[in-house]
Amino acid sequence: MQLVIISGRSGSGKSIALQALEDLGYYAIDNLPAMLLGSLVDEIRDQGDRTHLAVSIDARNLPGALERLPALLEELRQRKIDFQVIYLTTDARILLERYSATRRRHPLTRDSEMTLEEAINKEEETLEDIRDLADLLIDTSRLSVHDLRRRITDQVAHQRSDKLTLTLESFGYKRGVPLDADLVFDVRCLPNPYWDPTLRQFTGRDADIVAFLSSYPIVDAMSNDILGWLERWLPAYQNSQRSYMTIAIGCTGGQHRSVYMVEKLAEKLAPCMGEVQLRHRELGLHFTLSKQSAATLISSTPTNERPETS
């Protein structure tokens, strides 16, 4: 039996995530009362067949029910139930825009006099314990419906309990640090190709930027230091039953240095990890680097001729 528990802020895409799992063959239940989780698992297990189950548990629960959820999850863990907790979050400002555009009521405003902004903040506080327990945090602030469905398919449905799913993400500080990052490395101290007008149009995946950055010893030194840290500590995270790890690398605009660094690190890590998920937030790219394709990731091949997926 495989159990996926979807939770998170209202308006962050929980229904879309649940529908994506349902399309993949999961038995999906929306807005499950938390106190029924154990009984549901027992009922499903008694059927005898291997079942994929996905449930949504969020702030719509009865008062006090969510307070019992950590204990219920610990009980499932003691019973060796294979489960994942996925938490979806979105920047509060974007949630305000979404609710204003759709004119839907927030669940916490239905029986209270709270404003929409107060309800959004109250919900985040109510779900704090679940967020802390989450195996995977997904920031949907800049994800389209299709992007979210792909993330759920790639990272959740195909996840193995004995395997650490590693994601390397490039981003630009001028648009904020990714909310779902577990570790963040800042590479803004490295030489910036942006100040060369002949290089500005390229990205860290292009041969011109690769040649520029690889010519500086400081870039190679930082890459080796980050790689050494990850090789030293990723096994410890995996041994602590961690299922997911998102490493974010940031530069000013998220176009050159961070992109280059993510791809260089992925090239080195994929052979020992089996595969690595890559996300270039500001480029709108998301793909998987396999062990077989790692050797040719950073090369002089033009960007538009490189395969986007393994």
UniProtKB/TrEMBL annotation:
Q: Which domain of life is it from?
A: Bacteria
Keyword annotations of the record: ATP-binding, Coiled coil, GTP-binding, Nucleotide-binding
- Residues annotated to bind ATP: G8, R9, S10, G11, S12, G13, K14, S15
Q: What are the residue boundaries of the RapZ-like N-terminal domain, all occurrences included?
A: 1-157
Q: Which amino acid positions bind GTP, per UniProt?
A: D58, A59, R60, N61
Domain RapZ C-terminal span(s) in chain numbering: 165-283
**Could you tell me which SUPFAM superfamilies the record lists for this protein?**
P-loop containing nucleoside triphosphate hydrolases
Q: Is Nucleotide-binding a UniProt keyword of this protein?
A: yes
HAMAP family from the UniProt entry: RapZ_like
For this entry, the protein name equals Nucleotide-binding protein
**What organism is the protein native to?**
Vreelandella olivaria
